[in-house]
Amino acid sequence: xxxxxxxxxxxxxxxxxxxxxxxxxxxxxxxxxxxxxxxxxxxxxxxxxxxxxxxxxxxxxxxxxxxxxxxxxxxxxxxxxxxxxxxxxxxxxxxxxxxxxxxxxxxxxxxxxxxxxx
Length: 118
What we know:
Elements: E1 4-7, E2 10-12, E3 18-24, E4 33-39, E5 46-52, E6 57-59, E7 67-72, E8 77-82, E9 91-100, E10 104-108, E11 112-116
């Protein structure tokens, strides 16, 4: 079953913008936070940005000031507005949702490719 569906990836030139979206299935009954991670080939998956159900946000230093995460709680959708894109932003971007049960359970999307190149 697909729990998180991402969209919005693509090819963009340096300095360009892109907006990613991630919709959480109703099968996820409760969500503590949603966020975005990215992974470039041969590298570790790292946090890009995260937002909690109360609206608190945090960002990786590398994207601070360029990326903005937001959420529509009613639609169970999180967005990542990416401005001033750089080649080093190239990666597969994964949507994440954390669900608090007896322990925190992580759900992951399938990933969407973002390529920043001239």
